[in-house]
């Protein structure tokens, strides 16, 4: 595809871009899980038990300093305590101070995917959001039990399996594996537990029995329905009234139900479908009961955080509350968290609207960490409009960050960075203190990741000044400043899940994908550079400038130096002008 055609695809408007479809025929490499598992082990909490109390989260002591050298400001050994964490609770519609039920320990349940197809970037947003929360809670010294389920028994799975002539459980297991690959690409840490519906039928059946025993459900011909009339608080999470729940929209039509809003806890078996034995006959669970049963199995009936996408507020989470409280009157979730939609041309992305793009399609053209950067560049509760323009900008920013880190580490290596003094210039120390304050304050304010990302801009600028300007090269304690600044930036990027196993390798992959987006090979680009070099030698400056401008228009910047011409990916010139005009 030519450059002009590519740019016309900036805002995706078709179900699957033909360009994506052609590119996707190439097999993506299997992600390296080892580094991700190692990172998880570094952060891994001790085993979680809701019955064992713990001391409150300990705060770090006030700043303690190492020895003073030459009267300069010493490097701080520890930082000040983190600010209190505030999270927006969908139940109360307010930001609330986070206080877990058991001091020092957090139980968190996030609704997982229904495994009948590859995951799209709407899913990516959900699990990147809660991965950020998981990482930040660990950073704040909480022991976290993070439970994320797989829905591997569902109508959609059965329908897809029938289309493909495949066993439903086999199909769902295959897509569980594909989901794990996607999460590894995006550097989402593995949760503590990943229960599957098919492995928790006993817990589900036991909970349905309890709901029936408590008089909140009824049986009709082997089906079990929850009676919403028996739960007066129904609708408190979503703010919906029972009369708003019209059958056929989000609740199945069934004339046998006592109330059109009643929902299935157990569905009787149908020919050709998987089933499990129960006191009401063979069948399988309804959608909502699984999360109530599995969260209770691993976290108890009362725990701290329940999360998912905004589309789950109703009916899924509303129904979860009703059936969990019906099974156990003491059931209570401390904080309900929901992320906003991913939109395409301001319309919600969804499979039903056929305007979705899978994670695999996107990372064929953009590095997975560029996609992650794009997703956390908007506050998690706000809608985010998906476009190649925004991904171009995210990719460019990520390249700048990683190139700065690589340049810094190379300079430190050349200057034997281990032989450093234990002091810093005052302005560097102040920069680091401000970085910590801005980052911690923004993250503690309901995970305000855009502000957290912005907080590293000034330290990055200072590093580049120290590396590349004449004045910076003469700064006293230059190596000490570079070492401390880059260390702090990498620590904070780690909390955001943006630290790769190898920065240089990711820079290479970012360049490869930039070429892929414009349909060029590196050899073809090098021929263009050589053509420009020849034009300059022949004083054909108009031709030389035309080549430079043409490459800049598609997102390739040329850099001339005494050693020759190199290149880097950047925001395409037309995209850059559009962004500046906004």
Strand percent estimate: 5-15%
Sheet with most strands: 4 strands, parallel
The 3D shape can be described as elongated
- Approximate helicity band: 40-55%
**Distance between the first and last residues' Cα:** 28 Å
Count the beta strands. Answer: 17
Strand arrangement in the largest pleated sheet: 5-4-10-11
Mean pLDDT: 86
How big is the Rg? 27 Å
Structural class: alpha/beta
Q: pLDDT under 50 segments (min length 5)? A: 1-27, 44-71
Tally of separate helices: 21
Task: Give a quick rundown of the structure.
The protein is α/β, with parallel strands linked by helices. Helix content is 46%, strand content 13%.
Helices, strands, pairings?
Blueprint: H1 3-8, H2 18-24, H3 33-43, E1 73-74, E2 86-89, E3 94-97, E4 105-110, H4 121-139, E5 143-148, H5 155-164, H6 168-185, H7 201-213, E6 217-220, E7 223-226, E8 263-268, E9 283-285, H8 289-299, E10 302-309, H9 313-327, E11 332-339, E12 342-344, E13 347-348, H10 359-365, H11 368-376, E14 384-385, H12 388-414, E15 423-424, H13 426-444, H14 449-454, H15 457-468, H16 470-473, H17 478-495, H18 503-518, H19 522-537, H20 541-553, E16 556-561, E17 564-569, H21 573-581
Helix pairs in contact: 2-10, 5-6, 7-8, 7-9, 8-9, 11-12, 12-15, 12-17, 12-18, 13-17, 15-17, 19-20
Main location: mitochondrion
InterPro entries: Cys-tRNA-ligase, Cys-tRNA-synt_Ia_DALR, Cys-tRNA/MSH_ligase, Rossmann-like_a/b/a_fold, tRNA-synt_1_cat_dom, tRNAsynth_Ia_anticodon-bd
Cofactor: Zn(2+)
